[in-house]
Amino acid sequence: MKKPPRQYKSIFISDVHLGTENCKAKEVIHFLTNTRCQRLVLNGDIIDGWQLNRGSHWKPVHTQFIRLVLKRIEKDQIDVIYLRGNHDDILSRFLPMSFGSLSIVEEFVHETASGNYLVLHGDVFDTITKNFVFLAHLGDWGYRLLMSLNRWYNKYRSWRGKEYYSLSKAIKAKVKQAVNFVSSFEEKLAKLTVAKNCSGVICGHIHTPADKMMGDIHYLNSGDWVESLSAIVETDDGRFELVDFKNFERDYPMDDNASDISLEPEADFDFASIGILASK
Q1: Per-residue pLDDT, 176
Q2: What domain count does the chain have?
């Protein structure tokens, strides 16, 4: 017998990167299909405009994610907040804007009984992303190359009967510059949170999930749906939790043949042709 969906007050996800080869769209759809919430926060880089402008292929399963969100707005009348990230920064031209219960914003304050939480993607504190666009795109190319190597390496590990191993996470953990970048990123966000008179911050961008205290500031990072496959959830009693998909899947095993959303078999989009994600 199928388990009823987990009930949450709010769900925060970021960095899905729809439109890329490494996007784990099936997994995030499975997570959202087996959860319910009053508010869904899409905290930046949900659609990867950079890669779509370079000719990356938009898959039917990516359409399925969009349809799931729209279905929740229509059927469940949930509040959906989409924050622009750096990979979908074309949205910054039009912010803020809203369509019924869907709002697209730069940042917002999430109110809780225990204090307010500043919610933003976080790229504002990434100097390279903000001021050196060419280097940011070069870094993105390098990350995609690393992920391609990672796929082939893990196919070999699977053939040998070994578990998945993330080259990206290993590099982040061992390279001093990467460790320092993450630490500096978190410290700057904590200072901004204090300046905004908030008790916590919820962000994404660096693909590093976290739930920790930094002094008096509660720092939460929802991670990504490329490697970490994680989300931040707010329970009905106001507590925040970091959800790891591997643990979630133990209670809600994936069935590749199951879906609660219908799809046309040849669903596909060329965003560049309609100007939605055209470069600046």
Answers
A1: 45
A2: 1
